[in-house]
């Protein structure tokens, strides 16, 4: 069985703020193809924004701690994690973060040989990694 990452779902109290962050800071585009049809009357009625890097979707969903209960399910899909992006120009990413006033930790290759990694938080405290494969 083969698995391919389809989307990452993050929850937030402010969908518009999160969408703005991922679009303005990371340059992701709005996603309008292959979107799920939301059944808003069956347990979860929150807003969701969809963005993409061109390959992977992100679903930015309004937090709802009662969605599982309201849907009669034990697992509530709308709760946290770490997402990672690969870039070919980490210097440009660092410049953009600095321009936007977003602090980051530069781990260099301390954690992964051959990767230069930086880590930072989005507005809701989710960890984002951006890394570049070492050249040469």
From TrEMBL:
Residues of the VOC domain: 4-133
InterPro entries found in the cross-reference section: Glyas_Bleomycin-R_OHBP_Dase, Glyas_Fos-R_dOase_dom, VOC_core
Taxonomic lineage from the root: Bacteria, Pseudomonadati, Pseudomonadota, Alphaproteobacteria, Rhodobacterales
Domain of life: Bacteria
SUPFAM superfamilies attached to this UniProt entry: Glyoxalase/Bleomycin resistance protein/Dihydroxybiphenyl dioxygenase
Protein name stated in the entry: VOC family protein
Organism: Lutimaribacter marinistellae
